[in-house]
Amino acid sequence: MDWEIVIGMEVHVQPKTRSKMFCGCSIAGLNEPPNSHVCEICLGMPGVLPVPNKAAVEACITCIKTALALNCEIPQHTKFDRKNYMYPDLPKGYQISQYDLPMSVNGYLEVGAGKVRIRRVHLEVDTGKLVHAGDKLHKAWESYVDLNRAGVPLMEIVSEPDLRSADEARDYAMELRSLLRTIGASEADMEKGQLRAEPNISIRRVGSSELGVKTELKNINSFRALHRAILYEVDRQQQALESGGEVVQETRGWSETEQRTFSQRSKEFAEDYRYFPEPDIPPLQLDRAWIEELRRALPELPSVRRARLLDQLPPAQVAVIGADRDLSDVYETAVAKGAPTLATANWIVNEIAPTGKLMSGQYLAELIDLLQQGAVTRDQAREVHLESVETGRTPAEIVAEHGYSQVSDPSELRVLAEAVIDANPKAAADYRGGKKQAMQALMADLRKRAPQANPKVANELLLKLLA
């Protein structure tokens, strides 16, 4: 408790483009063969020059839209720079990035009840990927380089050091992903490497205004890993300082298997990169009228959407539906078609969000209506939902074809309930003796005997007979 955690975040995002930024190579999909999407330009062969293409223009537009959604200032002029460093995953020896004139500055993102300041959003191209293999016992290590990713456009979103815990850092990254998906900037799928978080972490004594020495964790690719890596790194730094040691400014990786951070290299300073204006790409002038057009075209942002949904739904449901544009669109379409708000939200949270099986709002309204009428059981409704998503047919068509119907006739269900009680004398006696959980066994037997039985009516009849 004597230490305060200070975290700034760098998040790299792959915009929605099909090709690399300054050459004609397509972007490799997940698990494609190494070095199968490369050419002379993205490999930096002698004598070749970067050529801005349609993907470069699309990436610029996406970057500016993201900056506007993050409330950033857009300067009138921007340019690209060469960031010089020599690593095996960057064979040309420099990265095309932005330094002193980025595409945007001074924004913020609302996270929970507060705001995280955004220092800048800029464009750059990705490097390659190093793959290490070896044997710890014999200390025989080999490294391979896959350059499929070299030249892929990236947005870098840099925050100020406003985060104070692993929870806040995770929530910030999740809110940022929700915003990116909402405006269509990126799929932001961390498992596919489309969003990579790099927290800069330091600690200082409570009450101090001086920042401590920071370490940067590279290429974190899940929210859980981000949370755990920060917790580990904070504990490591605290132990080092309290034992009389020091924290070294460096870049560290995260080992998911070992659940620890490890040193990769000493952290460079800006002057180490020897930035200078990219000589092969001219500066850009950003038209003010065009910027305003992009601003007006932005969709409703997640924070605004959640505030509106809170007038209709409990916070727990809003947290799920409000974070995803597709889920919220399905919900609002279904409600507009007459579906009740709470039942619709419950179905989305419990059935759609966990499975990813997204059906149209119109079909969902129809399914909720069939369920509430008692025309289908909940299990049948799940089957109808999945088949509707797979085939595109309406729930009513599927129900009619399969002959689904829910038995709700009390006289018919009474006979069934009596048979269940007779067949389960111990469970019936336990319930009458005060063990209310015994009802679960009776209902399970009833559902087994008659899957189409209306569970609400059947439960009421069982209670009445047992009383």
Give a brief rundown of this model.
Helices cover 40% and strands 20% of the residues.
Word description of this protein:
The protein folds into 3 domains: about 5-290, no CATH class; about 300-400, no CATH class; about 410-465, Arc Repressor Mutant, subunit A (Orthogonal Bundle). It starts with a strand and ends with a helix. The chain is α+β, with helices and mostly antiparallel strands and about 475 residues long. The longest helix has 20 residues, at about 225-240. The protein has 15 helices and 15 strands. Helix 3 links the parallel strand 11 (about 215) and strand 12 (about 250-255).
| Count of DSSP H/I helices | 15
Please estimate the helix content. 25-40%
Terminal Cα span = 57 Å
Number of domains: 3
Count the beta strands.
15
Percent of residues in beta strands: 15-25%
Radius of gyration: 28 Å
Shape, principal axes of CA atoms: elongated
The low-confidence parts are none
Main sheet: which strands, in order across?
Answer: 5-6-9-1-10-11-12-13
- What is the string of helix and strand elements? EHEEEEEEEEHEEHEEEEHHHHHHHHHHHH
| Largest β-sheet summary | 8 strands, mixed
Can you give keywords for this protein?
467 residues, alpha+beta, 3-stranded antiparallel β-sheet, elongated
